[in-house]
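Subgroup meeting minutes
Present: P.N., E.W., G.H.
Scribe: E.W.

1. P.N. recapped why we're keeping a running log of single-chain structure predictions: easier to compare across weeks, and new members can see raw inputs and outputs side by side.
2. G.H. added today's entry (483 aa).
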Amino acid sequence: MKFQKNLLAAVILAGWCSLGPGLRADEIRLPDIGDAGASAMSSAEEQRVGEAVIRNIRRAGGLIDDLLITDYLNNLGYRLVAASDSSHRDFNFYVINDAAINAFALPGGYIGAHYGLILAFDSEGELAAVMAHEIAHVTQRHHARSYEQQGSGLLTTAAMIAAMLLGGAGDGQLASAALASVSAGSVQQQIDNIRAHEKEADRIGIALLAGAEFDPYAMASSFSKMARESRLYGPQGPEFLRTHPVSQNRIADAESRARQMQIALRPPGITYELVRARLRVITAKDSEATVITFRENLANGRYHNRDAEQYGYVLALLVDEQFNLAAKELKPLLKKEPNRIAYRLIQAAIEVQRKDFNAAIKIYRQALSISPKNSLLTYRYAEALLKADRPEQARKLLSDYLRSPAKYPVFYKLMSQIESKLGEKASSHEAMAEFYYQTGQTHQAISQLTIASNQPTLNFYQSSRINARLRKLRSEAAQQKDN
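Output recorded in log:
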């Protein structure tokens, strides 16, 4: 694999990132962030770098864009962020489509957790510990500090961290190539910086855990669990430990800091277990085998939480198109917790599969009255309205939701379909342009905006907005080409 300078700057420097399946190094593009010899990255530059990397990872299929799971991870992340005294409050959390036990932080507050990490931990607190650690890397601006302390520029810093990461991953040839451009003294300086940053991220992360009412001992227990995995599987152990080396001293230090925390812990809920069950279904290769696994687990008592295992079973039945059995197995869950969103979503999805759109719409409407800002409920409700040939209602629902920019590109794709159904060609192309842009397809976005700008029915406001967006995207595309 050819490691270009954009990848080094965008991913390796950006923070301990392992790319999802099928993501090639030369698919990562960065905006122009100025002179590589500048003294430090500004906050605006960090934001642009992180956003560009995420858009390109998404374009290459490296994200799990399940709205329920992503909303959960963002809620967990912001529970931790709320406990921070940092001025950096703008974060985005993503689930990476990779079974590796790993997580990373990108400049600007973009944090990724591989789905393998979520499945590896039995407790929500241990997942929270890793997320708190990554949040601390961002709030302490470790990316910019590494860049500034090195002094020789962004690309040199990236090459040094690349050498360490690639070496840890067992690719000696690539590591040697990355090291060829830097001195041994500089490498040692960067290693020292990373060790200091890891220690600082541990310290601040434990404080975030306590502030968010998680068990502060979860930091040490998450490290211990991954260290055990590493001993069991040798060099194929958790990738997180290759880039965040854990020693007994580090675990002992985390335990010592936890002992100093006096807090009241928030009782754990079932949501984490539901998310893990959902991930097991989403990432499964064989739907029929997945149904059998959940059924056998329930029969033999092999589960952490019976309701979560039952939920996974019902979801697996839905994916395997056994709709009647799914409806039957869902009933005890709905009886126990009729207002739980995860259950109502399956209930409505079954009605959609049965082509009873009015029944599904009623379920979505009732659920949204309980959880009015839920992303997946909003999306599925609008989708059901469109299928029921009620595009005006669907447009109003999505227009209200999109008053604030959506984190999920699928909303713009659905809006494009709704506008097309209503005969609004310019608005349809404009919405599709936003979908393409957020999925890293800038040139396709420009094409859609160009078509929109040429529609004869545009008013002055629409024309001004579309052309302003078109100029911005063309400028970004030119910067990418220059890199």
